[in-house]
Amino acid sequence: MTQAPTTQETSTTVVLFGATGDLARRKLLPGLFRLFATHLLGDLRVVGTSMEDLTRDEFIDLTRKSIDDFSKHAVDEKIWGAFAKRLYYVPSSAGPAALEKTVREAEEGMPEPIQLLHYLSVPPKAALDVIGTLREAGLVKGARVIMEKPFGTDLASARALNAAVHEVFDEQQIFRIDHFLGKEAALNILAFRFANGLFEPIWHRNFIEHVQIDVPEELGLEGRAGFYEGTGAFRDMVVTHLFQVLGFTAMEPPTSLEPEAITEEKNKVFRSMLPLEPMDVVRGQYQGYRDEKGVHPESETETFVALKCRIDNWRWAGVPFYLRTGKKMAEGQRIISIAFREPPKSMFPQGSGVGQHGPDHLTFDLADEARMSLSFYGKRPGPGFRLDKLSMQFAVHDTDWAGSVLEAYERLIYDAVRGDRTLFTTAEGIERLWEISQPLIDNEPPVRPYAPGSWGPNQIHQLVAPRTWRLPFERKWREKH
Ligand code: BG6
Prior knowledge:
Layout: E1 11-17, H1 22-37, E2 43-49, H2 56-70, H3 77-84, E3 87-89, H4 95-107, E4 114-120, H5 124-137, E5 144-147, H6 155-166, E6 174-176, H7 184-194, E7 208-216, H8 225-229, H9 232-250, H10 259-272, E8 281-286, E9 304-309, E10 321-326, E11 335-340, E12 361-365, E13 371-379, E14 387-395, H11 408-418, H12 427-442, E15 447-450, H13 459-464
Parallel strand pairs: 1-2, 1-4, 2-3, 4-5, 5-6, 7-10, 8-15
Antiparallel strand pairs: 7-11, 8-9, 9-10, 11-12, 12-13, 13-14
Bound molecules: 6-O-phosphono-beta-D-glucopyranose (BG6).
């Protein structure tokens, strides 16, 4: 990755828009505290702002409560005391001049140079207003801006949004975040593929039969009906997270670990993707969704989507990629599963168990406790030749490194402060993903009902036939030692 100055030497002011929202409380405020507590961000000030009329003390209390509720790490009271002094708040109703004044006040006495980082944790509709506020407040020069997804709702709106943001910020200042790319397990796909000689030679259509990227969630709306009704599972998860993960899984070896090199290879994958065929998409809605508070009684928003997509290049032609995600499903999982081709002939007799548990699989678990496994057939001990599915597994949490894992948002904020764009998405990549999505957006199949706690509507089986979904797993992950 790019050698930027280490952040211990950098003074950083984070202006957090949407500072009282769900994402800020769950991830961003606890994450900023962790970056401060671990000295990854040396001198840090946080200026919170939102539509809520809080005082500075109330914002400090909200931050503390967020850390207590959502941080996985014990709080050192001395460090908290130092952090609390670095928190400021200004309501958005106070206007751009008040925002600028609070930022200057926060920065008093900080060693120069100071890196200003605006984090726009706001819905897409509000993003342009915030950009306007930053221009009026004179907080643009030298600043960086992290933008949350979704970037637009279709190709036209994504282009319009990118054009409007470019009127104020250069592309080099913009960091479009996709937190799935900050997950340790996602980064490990790159290490696994490109740091080893063993796997890359078989990483293509001659050996891989299909790929599944499957992210069912047990969670429901979690009070986000307002956001979700206008977004749905496809825009919330597929056009962002799942396609980005697909990019890492399918790309050619980049020439270096530099942002341009990685982005170029990811964008090549996106350019090779065929436009989505509506007949290859299953949209679902869990029963009871229309009764949720804030949901239209005749809502057609999908809370589930499964689809087949194709990458039409030399490496992947003919290999289907199946993607699935949804709310209120049977289990919460985040896996990439690579299914290898089966042997062309078998000397093992019928009834030996060969092929009975599907093909050999390589599976990446993108959970915070990252794991991977390779499953294959082996001999069951004893007389005769009974075959069973066996597996080799690796879990980060079985190693001594477990404590060093950075949560995805922590990792990405840290990278943005250092100016490292490797794990951020670009306007070009995002626009291409909307472009291949447009046939689906223009011609959406109907939403099919599914029972909460299930794996989605029945049509999911036809989508993958004669293959089967890898989830639910036949065999569980090995427990921690
Ligand atoms: C967010 C989506 O981007 O990702 C949520 O808006 C989803 O709907 C979440 O629940 C999943 O992220 P993670 O890191 O919990 O898998």
